[in-house]
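Before we proceed, please read the two lines closing this message. Report back on whether the structure tokens fit the sequence:
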Amino acid sequence: MSAEPDDAAAPPPAPAPAAAARLLDRIRADRRADTWLPAFERDWGKALEDSRASYVLTPLYDVVRNWQVRLAAASAVDAFANSGQDDSDFVPLDDVLGVRP
């Protein structure tokens, strides 16, 4: 008999081994690199410390996944911002991505 519930969600697959390096290259090439690069390095540094303390790679994987989502959404955000539509009823980013550790 297993201690795991039957409906437990499977964890998402681990990012590719070079995913963080490719992500960093994409961030450096983006026009927002001045603000995004320090933010990514801060998130990565904290995740690296957490991983070293716990011997678990999940915090690093989470940083890669979160930044992949941000980069994927950037063009849609730009399109919306450039459309001139009213954005006064915005949704906080933490509501969309969840609270970051």
